[in-house]
Amino acid sequence: MKISDVLRHKGSEVITIKPGETVSTLLALLAEHRIGAVVVSADGTTVDGIVSERDVVLHLHSTGTSVLDGPVSRIMTSDVTTGSADDDVADLAGTMTEERVRHVPIVDADGRLTAIVSIGDIVKHRLSELQSERDQLRDYISH
Questions:
Q1: Which of 16, 18, 93, 115 has a CB 3.0–4.6 Å from the CB of 106, allowing a cystine?
Q2: CA distance 59 to 38
């Protein structure tokens, strides 16, 4: 199975934030969309970084509440693991596990942002696959 299969069910909407926006604005986006990470993009099509709720917590702990008024660029991860729609689901899941990342932006061949997948999206897709296989086996056995 390919990441494109996951995206067919999940959709390809990506919430982005500009690097100069404040961390407080980021928190509002995370809460509004009930998500755990946002792609940082100056133009909405390139991946400049990624910032998660974990990044906010780590910087709140080390810096204090002043981080809330600072720019997202100060706390984002710049070295972002990305994937493509053609990637194998199991391979990307392995990469996410090895690199300890929970969100991977999906880019096209030109590097343009097209979607984002979370480890939760991948687990949900795999569970759906397993249930479908179980149902097919049950139907096969009962006939």
A1: 115
A2: 16
